[in-house]
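Dock phosphoenolpyruvate; give full complex structure.
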Amino acid sequence: MLQVKGKGIGKGVAIGRIFFYDKGDQQVNRTSISDTAAELARFEEAKAKAQEQLGRLYEKALEDVGEENAAIFEVHQMMLDDDDYLDSIKDIINNEKLCAEYAVATTGENFAEMFANMEDDYFKARSADVKDISERVVRILSGASEISDLTEPVILVAEDLAPSETVQFDKSKLLAFVTHLGSANSHTAILARMMNLPAVIGIDIDPAWNGKQAIVDGYTGTVTIEPDDELMKEMLAVKQKDEERRNLLQQLKGKPTISKSGKKIRLYANIGGVKDTGAALDNDAEGVGLFRSEFLYLESEDFPSEDTQFEAYKTVAQNMGDKQVVIRTLDLGADKQVDYFDLGHEDNPAMGYRAIRICLDRPEIFRTQLRAIFRASAYGNLAIMFPMIISLDEVLQCKKYIEEVKEELKAEGIPYKDDVEIGIMIETPAAAVISETLAKEVDFFSIGTNDLTQYTLAIDRQNAKLENINDSHHPAVLELIRMTIENGHKGGAWVGICGELAADTSLTKTFLDFGVDELSVSPSFILPVRDAVINAE
Ligand code: PEP
Ligand code: MG
């Protein structure tokens, strides 16, 4: 039995087999080979495996995001069988006598460049696709493991996980996350909590653990490899207790979220997509306080069209009935990267080109999303909010785009709701400090404590080395929250909190005393937070 200690960032206990998620050697070497027939056979085998994976991805996407979005995986399958593409790879292996990894990577780069230089927009967009399929084949050739190949649920162990990887995971195949890197407020951690899985970071992982039985204790941040019977018994008892507590909390369903002293708040859910509305409703969410719309972009291989987005927003709105759904506009950049945006390298991405800054700089992307949201507004109770605001000017620009989009829809005879509430996220000290001015321009604020902590303490939320001082309870953070709530009310805006801190029940009473109107948390935290509110004086 081996015990390793890290930091628990997703509560609960998981018992099962470890799957060591190895991304393979990303570096492609120009290695000479002598047996060209064997190398061609290696390539054919990898290609067949890639086709199989793409087939599975197509089926999964068809279920999750519909045919229009799933079609991209069919396009990838066709591209992988393209004669010119295959001839180029075979030519490099046969004539230059170089390894399959190099042949695929070089062909991928050449074809990507060729597509990128084409006039036609459709072909231009295929540049990212050919890169993508080539990377998939290289990954397979380098022996990287693919979670989509799993047949039973596992404890996923990895060096690090990017949000774009985590969103692709199938929850039914996962019991827990364990990583070496990562931080409590990273989006990967947030996704783990959204999936309601135990998660531990800061663990010195070992590939030799692959396939071994293990226990992940998200409460103490302990990972035990090949646990003995005694520990197994102890942990099964913890799991049992968790189950009992979960059952007890079920009694709070349908109850109002009101404190002993009569303070009533709205308890909303944070979601990442249509598929999370089930968990939100199951846990009795009173609305959706944060729909992280960028996950739609992270799950896509290309810009999601207006229609694709409209369908997603409309379905969420309809699923939630008359309950309010706050859609946050695209918050990409920093740790949330997608190839097709081509955001490029930045020395300091958290303080860089992200969120509303991208949207105001690339209005064609912004307008498409706004049109989709307003079209969907006719089907439920939608609200809209903008992330990473630092100035009044940004808010006014956003409102101007909204007016333009509404005019457009009106002229086209497309229905939309005229009274959609407009809000902003308070995630920067700048926004908190000028919140009284900003409140006069919007209907509501939603405090994003993850970023507010990052920018107040000047601590990159992704930096594992600073995890021990990354303290969301810092008095400066709490004072900015208090001040924002007070200023919001002065300016006539309601104020919610949607960062991870909203689910921290040790602060529930403090937030109530500050006068918060709404708390928005991952679905699995709704009933525990309701319990904390009900028990607060
Ligand atoms: C936040 O910053 O607190 C927030 C809710 O947004 P995100 O975590 O997606 O950056
Ligand atoms: Mg944020």
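Observed: The chain has a mean pLDDT of 93.
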